[in-house]
Structure formats: C-alpha cells, structure tokens
Write a structure and sequence with these properties.
The protein is α+β, with helices and mostly antiparallel strands. It is about 50% helix and about 15% strand. The strands form three sheets. Strands 1-4-5-8 form a four-stranded mixed sheet. Strands 2-3-7-6 form a four-stranded antiparallel sheet, with no helix packed on it. A two-stranded antiparallel sheet has the order 9-10. Helix 1 runs parallel beside helix 3. It is globular and about 80 Å long. It binds acetoacetyl-coenzyme A (CAA). Acetoacetyl-coenzyme A binds next to helix 6 and helix 10.
C-alpha cells in the first residue's frame, strides 16, 4: 500500500458528520502514521506528533491550535487513525488532549497561555490525575487533600493509575478542599518539578502504556494554579470526560479496524478443506458481525462528537453510549480476529494478538463499561 493511501474500508470518512477539513486532517494523520516506525518508548510520541502539527487539534486556536475550540470529531479521527497503526501514538495524542483538557475548558487565560502552546507543540507532556487506590469509579470518594494556606495550597495524598506518570511536565490533580463529597473537590495544576511531588511507582500493563502512582507530600502550589472555583473539581472532571470519552471509542474503532482488516486478508488467503477460509459460512458470520459492530460503533462515536461540536452543553449520555459500545465491540472484534487467525492469532506480535491486548484497557479507563451503563441508565430514568 502506498504510504499515503488511506486504510482499507475508510469510507466512513465520507459520512455526513465530516467536512473537507476533517478529510484533509485524516489524510495528514494517516501520512504521519504511515511514515512513523513502531516505538514502544512512550516519550518519543508527543514530540513527534507535535512536530507533525497533529497536536494542534488538542488545543484552541488562540494557543497555537487549529480550531477556535476543541473539535471533537478531529480528536476522534486522529485517535482512530493513530490507533490503527500505533497504540502509543494514539495514547500520546489522547493524553495531550485529556491531560490539558481542564485547562483548555476551564482554565484562566494566564493558565492557558502558560501550558497550552507547549502541549500543542508536544514539548510539554500533560497528565490527568483523578484516580486513587480507593477512588477510581467513585470519584466523589477522593481522599487527597488540598489545604489553603495564604496564597498557596498544600497538597497531601496519593494518586494511582496515572497515565504519563514520570513523563508529564504537569499534572491536573483533583483534590479535596471540603468534606462535602462531590461538591468538596477542586482541580489544580501541579508542575512535575514541584517540591513534595514524586512518582512512587511505575505499573507494567498488558500492552505498553506509561502508568504509575504519584505521591504529594506537603506539596505547595500557588493558589493561582487552581482551575475554576473551589468545589468545582468534580464537574470539571466530568465535563472533561464528556469531551474525551467518545474519543476512547474512536481509538477502540481504530484497533478493531486493524484487527479486522488483517483477519479479512488472512481468510481470503488461507485454504482448508479444499476452499478458502473466507468461503465458510461461519467465517462469513464473523465478518458480518465485525463489520456491522464497527459501523455501529462509529455511528455512536461520531454522533456524540458531532453533537458536542454543534454546541450541545452536555453529551454525557451520547459519549457514554459511544465509549461503552465501541470498546466492548472492539474487544469482540479483536477476539474474533484472533479466532480467525487460529494458532497464529495467539503468537506474540500477530496484528490480532496485539490489538487484543491493546484494546483491553479501554474498557476500564476513563470510566469502566459498568460506569457508562450507570450513566446511560440514570439519564433515562431521571427523565421519567
Ligand atoms: N458534566 C457536568 N456535571 C456533571 C456531570 C457531567 N458529565 N456528571 C455529573 N455532574 C454533576 C451532577 O449534575 C451533580 O451536580 P449537582 O449535585 O449540582 O446536581 C454532581 O456532578 C454529582 O453527580 P452525581 O451525583 O452523578 O455523582 P456520583 O458520585 O453519583 O458519580 C459517576 C457519578 C458517573 C459514577 C462518576 O463518578 C464517574 O463518571 N465515575 C467514573 C470515573 C472515571 O471516568 N474515571 C476515569 C479516570 S481518568 C482516566 O482513566 C484517564 C487516564 O489516565 C487514561
């Protein structure tokens, strides 16, 4: 395949959700992905994405970005096409958007000027520090504290499962400023070189992903590093996740498409019982299920993204549906692809084997599938 030719079955880019700028951006992302080699060193990717201009989609135009405000369809297109080629490229792209998301969406102009241009260039890596050992799905249970003292806050506590731990230049950290559950959380920016901040652990995962634990030991930050008002942290986290959850679905679609394309090629070449594997009806049932599942996922992802771009104040339900359906379906597609490859499918390095591992964490991070189901059901029941 020539380097600039789009991946097989990229007809979805002609769907009415997109305009010519989206299609040109997709070509740009794909050209980048085609010329990059594999690198399992996560730190390589943000500078490479930044140099290619792709991270401009992660920040607003006023700070070096492409669009006046985040264009969720562009974020989704980038994630799908990067995930189609390199899991860590997708991850690095996603984290620049999500890590800087609270600054982009709720920061002051000073905070935005200080952090966002470097995020868009890939010279400052961002991280989103929400989860704790005992507060992952239940965000309102966060224990980490931020105590105001003069014109500073003193941060004490620990964070767990933090992407880009040890790589990030700054972390958006959610901590408790009052004992009032969800309403007692606030958001802060912590520079990686702040005294009292340390990365205590690196966590090895099923597929390469820089993940770790953080500790804040009487870590003093200026009061001006607080994002939004005291008590707004929970809503800042949720509103940021509303924007980025559909992009997780898009990444899942990219992994799934890669596994499916490889499986389709395989079944048309592989012969058994005097015919092609593709000629067997049980194979065709799997192909039909993969293709339909993937298109349904894309429709949900781009519905949520389109709604947000069109100005919807909340896309909580749409984003939850997109993430849940796309990540669960992608896991099934990767599993079916492994099955169609047979023994080769479980050999380390096989495309389907890699996708099978790469997809798994997406059903957990940024809100597990079970949380998405709660969000969807609540939105329907509350409307009764
Ligand atoms: N936007 C704005 N406001 C929102 C909101 C949203 N999407 N969702 C909830 N709120 C508001 C509610 O309206 C409510 O406000 P009022 O009290 O004024 O009415 C308030 O926030 C509390 O909401 P809930 O009562 O619904 O809160 P809850 O404690 O029951 O929790 C939850 C809801 C949906 C389960 C939430 O805790 C959640 O989403 N959990 C999953 C957490 C998650 O996604 N973690 C991901 C970690 S980050 C990560 O994985 C990134 C990475 O490193 C890769």
């Amino acid at each position: 395949m020539p380097a600039t030719e789009m991946p097989a079955r990229s007809g979805w880019l002609q769907w009415p959700f997109f305009d010519e700028q989206h299609r040109a951006f997709a070509e740009h992302v794909h050209a980048f992905a085609s010329r990059m080699g594999e690198s399992d060193n996560a730190a390589d990717w943000a500078p490479a994405l930044g140099s290619a201009g792709l991270l401009r989609a992660c920040v607003p135009k006023a700070y070096g970005g492409t669009a006046a405000r985040l264009d969720v369809r562009s974020l989704c297109i980038a994630r799908e096409l990067l995930a189609n080629s390199h899991a860590l490229a997708d991850f690095a792209f996603a984290m620049q958007g999500l890590g800087a998301g609270p600054v982009t969406l709720f920061g002051t102009p000073e905070q935005q000027q200080r952090y966002l241009p470097a995020v868009g260039r890939g010279t400052a890596i961002a991280a989103f520090a929400l989860s704790e050992e005992a507060a992952g799905s239940d965000v309102a249970a966060i224990e980490m504290r931020a105590q105001p003292e003069g014109d500073e806050y003193v941060l004490s506590g620990e964070k767990m499962w933090i992407s880009n731990a040890g790589l990030a230049a700054f972390y958006v950290v959610f901590a408790r400023t009052a004992d009032t559950g969800a309403k007692g959380l606030s958001a802060f920016i912590v520079d990686a070189d702040t005294s009292g901040f340390e990365v205590t652990r690196r966590i090895d995962t099923i597929s390469p992903h820089p993940l770790g634990a953080l500790k804040f030991n009487a870590c003093r930050i200026p009061a001006g590093n607080r994002i939004g008002a005291e008590g707004e942290g929970f809503k800042i986290a949720m509103a940021t996740l509303d924007v980025f959850r559909s992009t997780v679905g898009a990444a899942a679609n990219g992994f799934a498409a890669r596994a499916m394309d490889a499986a389709v090629k395989h079944v048309t070449a592989r012969r058994l019982f005097g015919q092609r594997l593709a000629d067997m009806q049980l194979t065709q049932a799997k192909i039909a299920s993969m293709a339909t599942g993937l298109d349904a996922s894309r429709l949900l992802v781009y519905r949520a993204a389109y709604a947000k771009d069109a100005g919807a104040a909340r896309v909580t339900r749409e984003a939850a549906m997109a993430k849940w359906h796309a990540t669960e379906t992608a896991s099934k597609i990767a599993d079916d692809a492994v099955q169609l490859f047979g023994g080769q499918g479980v050999v380390r390095g096989n495309v389907a084997e890699r996708a099978y591992r790469d997809i798994r964490a997406l059903r957990i991070y940024e809100g597990a599938s079970e949380i998405q189901q709660i969000v969807i059901a609540r939105s329907i029941l509350e409307a009764q």
